[in-house]
Amino acid sequence: MSFQLSRRSLLAVVASSILSACTQVPKPGLEVKAADKANKNVITPPEKAPIEPERKDEPAPKLDYATIYGPVKDEGYDVPAVEFGAIKPEFLRQEVAYATGEPAYSIVVDTQKMFLYWVLPGGKAIRYGVGLGAQGRAWKGRAVVHWKRKWPRWTVPDDMVARQPHLKKYGIEAGGMDPGLSNPLGARAMYIFQDGQDTLYRIHGSPQWRSIGKNASAGCVRMLQQDAIDLYNRVRGKTPLLVI
What we know:
Blueprint: H1 2-22, H2 28-38, H3 65-68, E1 72-74, E2 77-79, E3 94-97, E4 107-110, E5 115-120, E6 124-129, E7 132-133, E8 141-150, H4 158-163, E9 188-194, E10 197-206, E11 215-217, E12 221-224, H5 225-234, E13 239-243
Parallel strand pairs: 4-13, 7-11, 10-12
Antiparallel strand pairs: 1-2, 3-6, 4-5, 5-6, 8-9, 8-13, 9-10
């Protein structure tokens, strides 16, 4: 009898131990190991520094020259469109890279290349094609745009009248030529002074668009009418000017 009780007691202990093992809460250390085991085949890629996208200089946007050089209604005048397709592309208005020691918002006229630059910050400029004075009458140096005028009168200086007597009717004594589409100074004029004196040279619009890129004026700086209007709107106060 005692043997049977002992055997029963032993079986009860074994069963209790098995049941206890099935319901045992795992220790924290085992929990971590189990997680490690479960994730042992998961590969975490190493962190990498972000890759900078390759920097490329974006091409300059194509300008709508049909609009830029299209007809303009201005101050009661109808400025005709320019046949820009007949002008060399380099003489059309465009923003360009331009390294210069001149300050931003000043003007540089390059007489060799027939360009006028409106200097911008950051090594850039707006470039315009121009027509310049004939050989022997072109000038160079530093000056200022002292003042400016819309649809100016054209007053022929005496030295030009001496060379071309037929212009006497537009001379100083006659009061000059009235503003208008046929006026050689065009839609805008910017008056160039040097050492406080009027040089009698001008930056101005011209109805003769075929003269752009050529030595064809009496020493002034000719621009396409639409370009002269654009530059006029940018010039403020006494603007520095360098002619090289």
